[in-house]
Write a structure and sequence with these properties.
The chain is mainly β. The chain has 5 helices and 26 strands. β22 and β23 form a beta hairpin.
C-alpha cells in the first residue's frame, strides 16, 4: 500500500510534525525514484544566490547499495522547485532510503526536499534542520501547502562560499510512526534531536569537495545497534582516485564567506512574521544572507556584523536606528551605506506564496 509519511521538523530544538500536502511530492514512476528540491523563495528581485545549480543527487538502498545518480540536473530559479527522476541502476523496485545531495558551484538554499519511490511511498525533509544541526541557513518565503509555517532553508555550495558542500538524509528516520513516535519529555526531545543531527546516517553535512559517499547503518537492525559504527558507501561505479581520497578525508574546503557576504549586503529582506525574528537571525552563528527587517517587531539585523538595531520612529528613536523610509541604517547621524540596496525583497503577509 502506498504511504505518505508526515516528516519530523524542529523549531528552536522542539520536535514536531509538519504536514506535507500531496502536491509537495513528485509523481510516482516505475523503476525510478523522483526527488523534488525547492529553494528559498523571494517575491521581488530575487534572494541573491538562493537560486542556482541544482545539486547532484545520489540514491542508495537500506544496505548502502548504490541505486542511481543524476550528476547535473540543471538550474533552478529562486522560489521554484524541480523534480529529478533517477533510474535505479539495478533492482528497480528497491527502496531509496538514503539520498546524498552534492552542491555545484552556484549556491542554493534548500527549503525542503521530498522523494517518491517506485512503490509510491513518499518522504520529506525540511531546511528547518539546518540551524538546529549547525548548518548555514536563512529564512525563506516558502509555505508548504499542508502547513501554515514558512520554512528555513539550508545553504550548500561547491566553490567554498558556504561551508557545507552537501548533505545526506536517511528518509525513514525523519518521519513520525506509531512504532517510533516522537518523545514527549524535554530530555527525550533533546536526545532525539542530538541523534538525528549528530549520529551520522540520519543526517550528515559534508564540507569536503564533491562528496560522493554516505555513512549508513549496519544491517539488519540498526535500531538495536545504534552504538555500532556506521559504514561508508561510495556513490560510484569506478574506484576513486588516490587524490580524491586524500581530499575527501583531509582538510575541508576553504570557506570564502566574505565574498559571498559582500554580495548579500546588496539586498534587504522585509518580513512581518513573528517567526521571522531579526534577533534570532542575528544571534545565530550560522545564519547567512541579506540584511533583514521585521516590520512587526520593529527590528533590523545587519548581517555584515550580526548587529541588531531598532527601527527609527521619528520621535523618540531618531539615531542609531534603521530608517525604514530611506531604507538606511543611521549611526551617529550618518547613513551606514554608501549606496542604496540593489533590491528590496518583500516577504510581508500579502506577498506570501504557497509551494
Amino acid at each position: 500500500m502506498v504511504s505518505i509519511f508526515d516528516p519530523i521538523s524542529v523549531v528552536s530544538g522542539i520536535l514536531g510534525i509538519i504536514q506535507f500536502g500531496i502536491d509537495n511530492f513528485p509523481q510516482e514512476k516505475p523503476s525510478a525514484s523522483t526527488v523534488r528540491i525547492t529553494v528559498g523563495l523571494d517575491i521581488q528581485g530575487g534572494l541573491s544566490n538562493s537560486g542556482g545549480d541544482l545539486p547532484a543527487v545520489t540514491l542508495f538502498n537500506e544496505g548502502g547499495g548504490y541505486l542511481g545518480r543524476k550528476t547535473h540536473p540543471g538550474k533552478i530559479s529562486s522560489g521554484d522547485f524541480h523534480d529529478i527522476t533517477i533510474e535505479h541502476f539495478h533492482g528497480g523496485g528497491q527502496q531509496a532510503t538514503y539520498a546524498l545531495f552534492a552542491a555545484h558551484n552556484d549556491a542554493i538554499c534548500i527549503a525542503y526536499t521530498s522523494i517518491t519511490w517506485p512503490s509510491g511511498d513518499q518522504y520529506g525533509w525540511t531546511g528547518d534542520w539546518a540551524p538546529t544541526c549547525g548548518g548555514n541557513w536563512y529564512y525563506s518565503n516558502v509555505y508548504l501547502s499542508g502547513s501554515n509555517k514558512k520554512l528555513d532553508c539550508m545553504w550548500i555550495d561547491g566553490n567554498g562560499d558556504q561551508p557545507q558542500t552537501g548533505f545526506q538524509v536517511h528518509w525513514p528516520e525523519f518521519v513520525n510512526t506509531t512504532e517510533n513516535p516522537l518523545p514527549n519529555g524535554e530530555d527525550g526531545q533533546k536526545a532525539k534531536v542530538d541523534y538525528l543531527c549528530n549520529s551520522g546516517p540520519p543526517f550528515k553535512m559534508y564540507e569536503n569537495p564533491n562528496p560522493n559517499s554516505i555513512v549508513f547503518w549496519p544491517q539488519p537492525d540498526h535500531q538495536s545497534s545504534r552504538d555500532a559504527p556506521a559504514t561508508e558507501s561510495l556513490a560510484t561505479e569506478k574506484p576513486l582516485s588516490a587524490r580524491f581520497r586524500s581530499m575527501q578525508h583531509g582538510a575541508p574546503a576553504s570557506h570564502n564567506q566574505p565574498g559571498g557576504l559582500t554580495l548579500m549586503n546588496r539586498h534587504l529582506v522585509i518580513s512581518d512574521l513573528d517567526q521571522h525574528s531579526a534577533a534570532g537571525l542575528c544571534e545565530s552563528a550560522t545564519s547567512f544572507g541579506p540584511d533583514f527587517l521585521n516590520t512587526r517587531t520593529g527590528t533590523f539585523c545587519r548581517m555584515a556584523n550580526k548587529s541588531i538595531w531598532p527601527v527609527c520612529d521619528g520621535a523618540q528613536i531618531v539615531d542609531n536606528c534603521f530608517d525604514s523610509g530611506r531604507m538606511q541604517l543611521v549611526i551617529n547621524g550618518i547613513s551606514a551605506r554608501n549606496q542604496p540596496y540593489q533590491s528590496i525583497i518583500d516577504w510581508r503577509s500579502e506577498n506570501s506564496t504557497v509551494v
